[in-house]
Amino acid sequence: MSPDGVAPPVRHRFAAEEPFILAAMVSLVGATVWLNVRPRLLLQFFYSAEMLALTHLVTLGFASSFVQGVMQRLAPRTFGIEPPSRRAGLWHVGLYLLAAAGMVGHFVLGSWTGLLWAALLLLATVLLLLRNFAPLFRVAWRRERPDWPARWVAASLLHFAAAAVLGCSFALHHAHGVGASLLGAALIDKLAAHLHLALLGWIGSAIFGYQLKLLPSTRASPRVEAARFVLLQGGLVALVVALLAGAPAVAAWCSLPIALSIASRSLPALASWRVNRPGRIELLAHALLLLLAAGGVALAFGVPEPDSDLRFATELAYGYVGLFGWVVLTVLGTSWKLFSTWVWEERFLPEKGKQPIPSVAALPSALLRDASAAGVFLGVVGVAAAIVAGSLLLLRVALALQLGGTLLFVAHFLRIARWQLLRSRLPWPPPPSS
User: Fold this and answer.
1) What is the DSSP string of 201-250?
2) Whole-number pLDDT of residue 425
3) Backbone dihedral region for residue 353 (phi beyond 0: left; psi -120 to 50: alpha; all else: beta)
4) For residue 232, with 0-12 CB atoms within 10 Å meaning exposed, 13-18 middle and 19 or more buried, which class applies?
5) Alpha helix segments (H runs only) across 308-391
6) Which pLDDT score, from 0 to 100, does residue 180 have?
7) Rounded to whole angstroms, how far apart are CA atoms 34 and 47?
8) 405-423 burial string, b = 16+ CB within 10 Å, else e?
9) How far is 374 from 28, CA to CA, in rounded Å?
10) How far apart are alpha carbons 283 and 416 in whole angstroms?
11) What's the whole-number average pLDDT of the chain?
């Protein structure tokens, strides 16, 4: 039995979540190094081929890979559904990583035809993901006992598909002059619709669903959770439709229910800081999420003014805090618990009763955990301030700090995973090095 009293699933030696998680780590380091080499990207207009490549390295390479890796491992166990077959899981991860690498590479090369084929392959992998986890929808919408975590995760899959379709329309437009051009909205509004579908709809809804299972401070009564779900999902769909229809005034009002849903989740979590000291990294993520909600409402209602130079800098800082701040800190705050449990189950559980083994709590390092979170948080806040102020010096310092936090995050992951990845030998504790 695992520490939570649930029997661990039978797994193959090489499972789909492992390449997903490893790809996520490599992508995050790659994106952070990229920015340290090319900091001026954050002081110019954000719609460029290189910036799009970098953004997709984070959204597809890091965030989406991590969410899918967690889904491969947790969804069958958490929601009581049959896991995908090993063959289906490996086909999925192989095609997905090929598509994501193709999109990032073709953005760098400026090859829109190649980008279109990569985007279509990505859409195919999203449809395969929907097929592999189709039983989740039956669990999510059963009438006898509503499962709100499952509903959040199921909704995230639908948003992933919608974001992929919209992305294909952009690629089709650039390659052949049709697709997104049929939409009457301004380019910035169409990009905002795509970003919110991907970041808040796909990644955010998945995070919110799994937080209900993993973080007690985010839980509420069924009625409150139903209100949160309706406010965010309904507000997000209405926001995206309004942006794509070229109705920014309508989109502004749609931002309010989204912000209310976020506040109803994050404010109680922040209020628990006295009794949730081990979850202080998650509290930092909630604080950034509240800041993003307030910032999104301000931007939607024209603050700063749409024609001002400060507007584009603020929009870039908003997206940066969302991707590198909220998403990374949320992953950082929960992954050490997940990784420790997974490694303990796979590496040490079979040895229980045969020889001394460590506890789950002995695998992570509190120092690495907190230092990595501090580096990422201070770095991201500094980068956002530098973008708005237009300061290259502050930007370089903040990016270096963020890179340090990111490398510590990866070092912490490797410290935990070494027992499984390297098959480190027992007995426990390991003998001192000579």
Assistant:
1) IIIIHHHHHHHHHH-GGG---HHHHHHHHHHHHHHHHHHHHHHHTT-HHH
2) 66
3) left
4) buried
5) 309-320, 328-343, 366-389
6) 65
7) 17
8) bbbbbbebbeebbebbeee
9) 17
10) 23
11) 90
**Paired tokens of 4:** 């939570």
Q: Is the pLDDT of residue 91 over 60?
A: yes
Reported for 111-118, long-range contacts at CB under 8 A and 24+ positions apart, including other chains, are: 112/171, 112/174, 112/175, 113/175, 115/171, 115/174, 115/175, 116/168, 116/171, 116/172, 116/174, 116/175, 116/176, 118/171
Q: 3-class secondary structure for 350-369?
A: HHCCCCCCCCHHHCCCHHHH
Q: Say which DSSP state 136 is in.
A: H
| Span of 71-85, 149-163, 369-383 with lowest mean pLDDT | 71-85
Structure tokens, 39? 């900091």
Secondary-structure breakdown of the chain: helix, strand, coil percentages, each rounded to the nearest 5: 80, 0, 20
Residues 355 and 70: their CA atoms lie apart, in Å, by: 30
254: Cβ–Cβ under 8 A, 6 or more apart, which residues? 235, 236, 238, 239, 242, 300
pTM of the predicted model over 0.70: yes
CA–CA separation, 174 and 171 (whole Å): 5
- Residue type, position 423, single letter: R
Token code pair at residue 120: 């279509």
The full set of domain ranges for the chain reads 13-139, 147-303, 324-418
